[in-house]
Amino acid sequence: MSAMGQASPVSRRERVRASTLAEIKSCALELMRERGTTQVHFSDIARAMGMSAPALYRYFADRDDLLTALIRDAFNDLADTVAKAVAPIDPDDDWARLRAGMQAYRAWALAQPERFALIFGLPIPGFAVDEESGTTEAAKGAMDVLMSLVEAAYDAGRLAPSAITHLVPQMEEIMAEERPEGRPELPLASCQGTLHAWMTMHGFVSLESGCHLAMWPEEARDRLFEAQTELAARAIGITVPAP
Questions:
Q1: In CATH terms, are 10-60 and 74-236 the same topology?
Q2: What is the pLDDT of residues 88-101, one digit of tens each?
Q3: Dihedral sign computed on CA atoms, order 203, 209, 215, 218
Q4: Contact 129, 71 (CB under 8 A)
Q5: Tens digits of per-residue pLDDT, 100-124?
Q6: Residue ranges of domains in the chain
Q7: How far is CA 159 from CA 1, 89, 192, in A?
Q8: pLDDT at 4
Q9: Where are the beta strands (DSSP E) in the chain?
Q10: Which residues contact 87 (CB under 8 A, 6 or more apart)?
């Protein structure tokens, strides 16, 4: 920071490095898209960028370091996308906010299937996420947007009884351990209902992103997802407007 409290200007060298980092990530994702796999090799990226493979080690320690950065970026981008979709909606309209968030989640996954597969697909052989890499916190981002929405509705007294009748007592302790300090404690039914809502949405999106629902017309898939969102709302206790 300068004496006036302003950030120092970014040097040309730092700008070039940031640009190259972004290009490496973009190239890796493009190779994943072309090959239909999340596996990437430094030699392939270097060849596509016109660089030598050893030159890439100035930017990433190894393949796992690059994959970790891609995973962290994808989780953060997904969470930001969902948050931005929810933000402009009337804070008292819980159904509209839930619907906007879930539609944004689905749209992101369908627009970027290779990134969705990278963070939610099969484990990459030989790759293990570093617990201190920041990916664990990033992974909670989209779910945290949903949980915050439910907490706001609960605080305002707008949550109806959850449609969940088979409660799992162990989840109360598990969720208590994961709840950030200062966040409200939801009733077990609403808390578990929120988990079911996320799993319901995510399951549909995973099938669709993987082209397992391609046999159905787009309009049918849209209506099915709308129905899935209504089920998710009732699981939580969010009131769905009458048709």
A1: no
A2: 999 999 999 999 99
A3: positive
A4: yes
A5: 999 999 999 999 998 998 888 877 7
A6: 10-60, 74-236
A7: 46, 18, 14
A8: 53
A9: none
A10: none
Query: Taking the complete model, does pTM exceed 0.85, yes or no?
Result: yes
Q: Could you give the CA distance from residue 191 to residue 151 in angstroms, rounded to a whole number?
A: 9
Task: Return the CATH superfamily for domain 74-236.
Answer: Tetracycline Repressor, domain 2 (1.10.357.10)
61-74: per-residue pLDDT in tens? 888 899 899 999 99
Section 11-26 average pLDDT? 89
Q: What proportion of the chain, given as a percentage, has pLDDT over 90? A: 54
CATH code for the part of the protein at 10-60: 1.10.10
CA 26 to the chain's CA centroid: 18
SS (H, E, C) 82-104: HHHHHCCCCCCCHHHHHHHHHHH
Output the CA–CA distances (angstroms, integers) from residue 18 to 13, 91, 138, in the order listed.
9, 37, 21
